[in-house]
Amino acid sequence: LLMGEAMRSALEEPYTIDGHQYSTAASIGITLFPKQHEAVEDLLREADTAMYRAKDLGRNCISFYEAAMQADAKERLALEQDLKKAKAEGQLAVHVQPQVNAAGMVIGGELLMRWNHPVRGSVPPSCFIPVAESSGLILRMGDWMIEQACETLAQLQAAQRVVSISVNVSERQFRQADFVERVRSLLDRTGAPPEHLILEVTESLLIENLDKTVARMTELVQMGLRFSIDDFGTGYSSLAYLKKLPIFELKIDKSFVQDTPDDPNGTAIVESIIAVARLLKLHVVAEGVETQAQADFLTSHHCDCLQGYLFGRPEPLEPWLQRRLA
Ligand code: C2E
Ligand code: CA
Ligand code: CA
């Protein structure tokens, strides 16, 4: 471990090429030998598996191989293979969860992906989204979600019942070279009103390649779309990037919301996020609102919008839409 740490920190040292400063981070996987009946390939595979774990742990760290990791890796591969077929076999579904204002009126909805596996049953997004991301399947799946959002908006608009529709966009999806064009063509084809489409992105998107991110976001904002920072408060929450980016909304992470109004730490975080949003003239949504006490606390602190089981669990999109159109 000491050796690995020495390598990792040596690699981390910034260096200069052509007058530009660069830095590299390394993820290191370690396995121990000799073990019985193990060949070179086994050792390499174990080290590789441990390295991927190090990457998953947030990169730039060291991980030791454990037998459980191999089982994990196998399970992940099986899940990935099933996920590849899920879309074509109609196993993916869209749910929607309402967002309400202080008066309890529905002003929007967040679309959430669901996977109904024929054998495994309903696989939680916390399980399949990471697999979709690491395998690249998220690109097609995410496109499809934006398409669903656009079609929903077009129908709501036609019935003059429009509310905002939020959709989660993963970093990999946002970074696709033709992301802006894809969104533009979906909007054109469906005739959806772009000003009611909210893209939810996480803070991690904002740390790397800030200049490129600003340019791309600006292009989308010029088309009329809006951006929300999901899980706000759990990442960097740097005020510097908030000023640079064309953001519409902050979404307070449910872990803080659920600490209100009794836990002083969580409550203080929620209050400061609302204050920051105010200062920067951003809309603020609280997610994971489960109790009336939480809702009362949030509205009395001027949180614009609430989302959580208290107002409605995620439900299949189609019947929800039909009810709103009726
Ligand atoms: P998220 O975007 O933070 O979504 C909110 C999650 O909180 C949802 O879980 C929702 O069901 C849950 N939730 C809502 N209200 C409450 C509440 O009152 N209490 C509690 N305890 N939970 C509540 P879900 O649907 O399991 O989604 C988990 C995550 O999966 C999402 O977190 C999002 O990061 C990801 N995800 C879901 N759909 C998509 C998608 O279409 N694209 C991408 N990239 N990610 C998605
Ligand atoms: Ca979200
Ligand atoms: Ca969230």
What's the quick description here?
The chain contains 14 helices and 14 strands. With 326 residues, it is an alpha/beta fold.
Strand content: 15-25%
How are helices and strands ordered from N to C? HEEEHEHEEEHHEHHEHHEHEHHEHEEH
Number of helices: 14
Radius of gyration from the alpha-carbon trace, in angstroms: 22 Å
Helix fraction? 40-55%
Mean pLDDT: 93
**Shape descriptor:** globular
Which ions and ligands are bound to the chains? ligand C2E, calcium ion
Unreliable stretches covering 5 or more consecutive residues: none
Structural class: alpha/beta
Strand order in the largest sheet = 5-6-8-9-10-11-12-13
Characterize the biggest β-sheet. 8 strands, mixed, barrel
Distance between the termini: 64 Å
Q: What is the number of strand segments?
A: 14
Q: What does this protein look like?
A:
Strand 12, helix 13 and strand 13 form a beta-alpha-beta unit. The longest helix is centred in the middle third of the chain and has 21 residues. Strands 5-6-8-9-10-11-12-13 form an eight-stranded mixed barrel, surrounded by five helices. It has 14 helices and 14 strands. It is 48% helix and 21% strand. With 326 residues, it is of the alpha/beta class. The structure holds ligand C2E and calcium ion (2 copies). One calcium ion (CA) binds next to strand 10.
